[in-house]
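--- STAGE predict ---
source: upstream dedup step, 1 unique chain passed
mode: sequence only
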Amino acid sequence: GLASGDYKDPGWFKHPEGTVAFEWKGEPKKAERAPSPKFDKTKTAEFNVVKPGVKSPHNNH
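--- STAGE serialize ---
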């Protein structure tokens, strides 16, 4: 570390190994898709949602 009252430039920061980003030079990997979720009609519900109206002269804003 630095001694008390020592304000000299400590030099360039050394990043820990494996923590600096770099440009990938190899072949891109094939993207893997997540499996589609199973659709089970017995476990679904249908909703009809209506936003409640406000009775005000500023209702159209």
